[in-house]
Amino acid sequence: MANNPYQKYQNTQVETSNQEKLVLMLYNGALKFVKQAKQGLKNNDYQVTNNCLIRTQNIINELMITLDMEQGGEIAQNLESLYDYMNRRLIEANINKSIEPMDEVINMLEELSDTWKQAMQNLKKERKVQKKQQVPSGGISVEG
């Protein structure tokens, strides 16, 4: 797989991305795989469905283990509970060959992804403001 240009691009993107972007990439990957699982189920391709649901669960597990419970406090605890719930729904979807739990997880992941994008935009704006407020060493700040 190392000779695959797409895989090289993906590896480079992951290796050079900041932490905020990596979380967004994980959400996007989870969404992609759960949608593929749903399509697999519609096509009665249970192998694809199973593989994609497992990949989705692996991504959700990665999101869960990277939570900083100390610094994240209540938000991290709520996300952990939500990720756990999504995993249980995906297991249910896989066992029962049911689309409804997949749709529920898709909706939750889309909402989390949208919220994360907004948080990234807010953080970017905040960093710009902080950068403007910083005074270079030896410089003079004139306010007013």
Automatic annotation (TrEMBL):
<keyword id="KW-0963">Cytoplasm</keyword>
<keyword id="KW-0143">Chaperone</keyword>
<protein>
    <recommendedName>
        <fullName>Flagellar secretion chaperone FliS</fullName>
    </recommendedName>
</protein>
<keyword id="KW-0966">Cell projection</keyword>
<feature type="coiled-coil region">
    <location>
        <begin position="106"/>
        <end position="133"/>
    </location>
</feature>
<comment type="similarity">
    <text>Belongs to the FliS family.</text>
</comment>
<dbReference type="InterPro" id="IPR003713">
    <property type="entry name" value="FliS"/>
</dbReference>
<dbReference type="Pfam" id="PF02561">
    <property type="entry name" value="FliS"/>
</dbReference>
<keyword id="KW-0969">Cilium</keyword>
<keyword id="KW-0282">Flagellum</keyword>
<keyword id="KW-1005">Bacterial flagellum biogenesis</keyword>
<dbReference type="GO" id="GO:0044780">
    <property type="term" value="P:bacterial-type flagellum assembly"/>
</dbReference>
<dbReference type="GO" id="GO:0005829">
    <property type="term" value="C:cytosol"/>
</dbReference>
<dbReference type="InterPro" id="IPR036584">
    <property type="entry name" value="FliS_sf"/>
</dbReference>
<dbReference type="GO" id="GO:0071973">
    <property type="term" value="P:bacterial-type flagellum-dependent cell motility"/>
</dbReference>
<keyword id="KW-0175">Coiled coil</keyword>
